[in-house]
Structures are given as C-alpha cells and as structure tokens.
C-alpha cells in the first residue's frame, strides 16, 4: 500500500506544471542606467534608460521584476500565481510526507537510529497561509565547507584595478577568440563579446567577479556551446539580440538569488535541492550556470524574443530551472533534463 501511495503521489507531482516565481527578492528595487550597445553582433542600437536609483544588486539589462511591472499585472494573473504557489506548497508537503513514511518504515524494519532525529521538516508559512520557506536538513561538513567557499566567491566584487581580475578578463577573450589579438583593457573591440561599452569593468556591478569566473568556466568546460551562444549560431535570431557577456552577468546574479545563497542557510525548495547538488559536485553552481545560459538561449529562440523581452525570457528560464530542480530523481546537475542541451 505504501508503494502504491508513493507511486500515485509521484504521478500527481509530475503532472503539475509548477510555475515558481522568485520575483519577490527583487520586486522592491529598480535600476537606473544607460545601456551603450554600440555595435553588438553587427547592429547599432540606441540607448536605453530605466528609471530608479543605482543599485549594485540589480540585473544589468533592466528591472528583472519591478514595482511598475507588478502594477501592470492583472488581478487574474496575480490570483493564478497565488493558486500555483498554494498548489506547489501542498504538493511538496505531500511528497515529504510520503518520503517520511517510507523512511519511518525502513527504520522500523532495520531497527536503526532514532526516528525523531530522522523526521523530515515541513514548510513554514506566512501569516496568510502561503508557503515561503522550508527548513533545510542539517548540512554535512562537506556541504558546509563548499557552501562557505561559494559564498566567499559571491562576495568578491570585480575590481578592474586588480591584476588578477584583468588577467581573467583577458583569459576570457582568449577563450572566446583564440585566433584574434588581445585588445587593450579598454577598447571598442570588447563590444563584439556583448559588453555594453569599451570598458567591460563597468558592466559587472551586482554580478561580481564570480560572473566572470562563470563565463570562463563555461568557455573551458563546454566550449562548443559557449561558442555557439557567443556567435548566435542556433536558430533564427532576432534583429536586436541580447548582448552575450552582459546576459551572462545577469544569469550569475539571478541564479544566486534563485538559490537563496544570500541567506544564512538556504530555505527555499530550490536552495535546499542545490545543497544536495553541492554535496555531489563542488562546482555545482558553475555547472548550473552553464545549464541556465543554454536554457535561456533556448527560451529566447522559442519565444522569438528581442532585446526588450530579455527579462521575460530570464523569468521563464528560472521557472523552468526551478521545475527541473524539483524533480525527485535529480541528485547531480547532470541529471537535469536541460543538461543534455550542453555540448563540449
């Protein structure tokens, strides 16, 4: 009976189309900037300004979620989002109950350990009953060490005056254009890679140095996918394409937010699942970044999007990534269905 209940639960879980929304972490802030794309992918584009105040923690291509966007949402759309969140809450709770029963039975059969210490934690709720956070299980020493190292990487801002940061930027150029001569650190040639202007160091902002490390890792570990995305070789492209390098910085930023890595201990579903991935792979964040970048480009093509729709594409990308991370049989980044899109 337990096995049958477990299978029925899984069938129900996988039939649900989970549309998770991580916009709350960024909905209260806006960013003011002027994007200078000059000649990106051979096309000259005009300036773009968005209102608000400068904030180093905002994505660079505009407001991923803004107060204005929230005001424009219809009541029906808001209600649909709330219903999806509520459905997700109860689905996850039921899944955890099934897993708890299975472990409880195993403990009885095997006679090992205290049952109380093995109880799974349940989602906490806000005052209005909405699910917001999960209590993560205790971290192993390996998880703690790897999470601490990742957080240290996230805290390093890009500093154009540091030699090691300059060298990393030039390394990225070598990986992107192995047959081209290295440009100066300030040159119009950087726009070919999708930087906003002639000085890439001004484009990092909230992405930090880790976003440059992510791009280098992508180029080294999945060179074929990196080159195809850099040169926009797949599908029918838009007249106004997203700038490759700046898009990569956005993905680093949003991925860190999605995984709840700024918290003392990740307490969202995807944050907890990521800790499981980190247990298996020290470079789980970098590998997940590559998956997210490839997934974003696939979403871009599927939506036939143009530059002004980039944030909508980024939102749908994170939603898809959250759904895949919630799959029960995912214990490594390589288990994600979207991982199969990457090419070495």
Structural class designation: mainly alpha
Estimate the helix proportion, in percent: 40-55%
Distance between the termini: 45 Å
Provide a count of the helices: 11
Largest sheet: 2 strands, antiparallel
Give the integer mean of the pLDDT values.
Answer: 74
Tell the overall outline: globular
Question: Poorly predicted ranges (pLDDT <50, ≥5 residues)?
Answer: 1-60, 62-78, 104-132
Numbering strands along the chain, what is their spatial order in the largest sheet? 1-4
Rg over CA atoms: 21 Å
Oligomer: single chain
**Strand content bin:** under 5%
Order of helix and strand elements from N to C terminus: HEEEEHHEEHHHHHHHH
Protein name: ELMO domain-containing protein A isoform X1
Organism: Prunus yedoensis var. nudiflora
Region (Disordered): 37-58
Pfam family, one: ELMO_CED12
């Amino acid at each position: 009976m337990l096995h049958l209940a477990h299978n029925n639960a899984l069938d129900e879980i996988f039939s649900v189309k989970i549309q998770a929304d991580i916009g709350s972490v960024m909905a209260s802030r806006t960013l003011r900037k002027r994007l200078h794309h000059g000649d990106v992918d051979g096309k000259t584009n005009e300036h773009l300004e968005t209102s608000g105040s400068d904030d180093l923690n905002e994505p660079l291509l505009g407001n991923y979620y803004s107060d204005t966007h929230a005001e424009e949402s219809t009541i029906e759309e808001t209600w649909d989002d709330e219903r999806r969140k509520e459905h997700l809450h109860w689905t996850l709770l039921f899944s955890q109950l099934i897993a708890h029963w299975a472990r409880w039975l195993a403990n009885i059969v095997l006679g090992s350990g205290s049952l109380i210490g093995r109880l799974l934690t349940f989602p906490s709720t806000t005052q209005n009953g909405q699910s917001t956070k999960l209590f993560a299980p205790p971290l192993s020493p390996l998880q703690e060490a790897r999470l601490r190292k990742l957080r240290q990487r996230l805290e390093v801002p890009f500093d154009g005056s540091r030699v090691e940061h300059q060298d990393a930027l030039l390394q990225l150029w070598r990986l992107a254009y192995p047959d081209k001569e290295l440009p100066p650190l300030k040159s119009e040639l950087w726009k070919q890679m999708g930087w906003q202007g002639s000085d890439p160091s001004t484009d990092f902002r909230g992405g930090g140095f880790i976003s440059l490390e992510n791009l280098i890792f992508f180029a080294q570990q999945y060179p074929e996918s990196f080159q195809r995305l850099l040169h926009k070789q797949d599908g029918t492209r838009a007249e106004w394409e997203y700038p490759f390098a700046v898009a990569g910085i956005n993905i680093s930023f949003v991925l860190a937010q999605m995984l709840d890595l700024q918290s003392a201990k990740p307490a969202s579903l995807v944050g907890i699942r990521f800790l499981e991935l980190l247990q298996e792979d020290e470079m789980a964040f970098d590998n997940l970044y590559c998956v997210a970048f490839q997934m974003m480009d696939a979403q871009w093509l599927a939506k036939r999007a143009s530059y002004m729709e980039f944030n909508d594409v980024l939102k749908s990308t994170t939603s898809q990534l959250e759904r895949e991370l919630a799959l029960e049989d995912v214990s490594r980044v390589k288990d994600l269905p979207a991982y199969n899109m990457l090419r070495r």
